[in-house]
Amino acid sequence: MSFRHNHLLGIESLAPDEIRAVLDLAETYVDLNRAEAKHGDALAGLTQINMFFENSTRTQASFEIAGLRLGADVMNMSMQASSIKKGETLIDTALTLNAMHPDLLVVRHPHSGAVNLLAEKVNCAVLNAGDGRHEHPTQALLDALTIRRAKGRLHRLSVAICGDIAHSRVARSNILLLGKMENRVRLIGPPTLMPAGIAEFGVEVFDDMAKGLEGVDVVMMLRLQKERMDGGFIPSEREYFHRFGLDAAKLAHARSDAIVMHPGPMNRGVEIDGTIADDINRSVIQDQVEMGVAVRMAAMDLLARNLRAARKKEREHA
Ligand code: NCD
Q1: Is residue 101 annotated as a catalytic residue, yes or no?
Q2: Of ligand 1's atoms, which has the minimum distance to the CA of residue 225?
Q3: What is the mean pLDDT of the chain?
Q4: pTM here?
Q5: Are 247 and 270 contacting, i.e. CB atoms less than 8 angstroms apart?
Q6: Among residues 92, 17, 107, which one has the least CA distance to residue 56?
Q7: What is the pLDDT of residues 169-207, one digit of tens each?
Q8: Which residue in the list 57, 85, 86, 317 is annotated as catalytic?
Q9: Mean pLDDT throughout 24-46?
Q10: Ligand 1 site: residues with CB under 6 angstroms?
């Protein structure tokens, strides 16, 4: 078995061959998604519930489309209007849903570790769609697929991750994945937005864009996560753009064939100049969205295979 997990909670627990297994399967789904008839049946008969305790546009839509294309019955729980508001705990909500026999539970939650906790309480496959500042594994996998397709490989690349590293689960999952696949990772941002102890991750840290971007193959920009800030992390957005916003002059320090990425949603004019984001010769931001659906199809397909195998075993031993 090429993918040995019952849940997809983070990149941290994945081995390089498991990462490759997800990406290779996702390639086949890229082709399916570009065809006119987009239906597979890998999830036929299964129920997928999306529980988003934080706002999301692209990630929720992407998981929903991925499930529908593979034949799952997909339900979106609106957690804004849910019993959480009436004081129910996360675990009680999970146990209630669990009693309805879902097969795949896709969860986004503002607290780091909440999705792991939930996975211990239910008997279906859980996918982490982002937990606090901790992990966002499908984002790192879709970024990896985008890089592999644009650069022809996913090793020995020099990748700069820029901006609000401290609040970013996208950065954390990407640092882990790119490291496992033997790439060089540089982090660029103001010291106030660098997490403590980050050097332990085997990355190089810069607070100057010109120096940090020198010769890199990939420039990954991050959104300034204002909703996770509780004070003065940056002097002003204008000043931030001046020093850390990606524009043509700063990008000129990267390799001439370097690609530009952003997980979205973008703050144009804050962390990235709109012209760069829209430059089809450099920006792969729309490719990231396309790869997102394929990667989520692959992840749910692999988890469903393991789920079916485990249930079969259980029945045989019953
Ligand atoms: C990211 C997230 O939610 O962590 N967005 C996403 O999944 N597309 C990044 C962000 O919110 O800035």
Answers
A1: no
A2: 12
A3: 94
A4: 0.96
A5: no
A6: 107
A7: 999 999 999 999 999 999 999 999 999 888 888 999 999
A8: 86
A9: 97
A10: 58-59, 130, 136, 139, 169-170, 223, 225, 263-264
